[in-house]
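Appendix B. Chain record.
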Amino acid sequence: MSTPVSLSNATSPVVVSVLLVAVTITL
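Structure tokens predicted for this chain:
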């Protein structure tokens, strides 16, 4: 997990933020 992978590092927070926004809009 400590390996600096551009895709993984960039995708994880984006997915989390999108999920949070989706949940917020749904609620």
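Further analysis of this model is presented in Appendix C.
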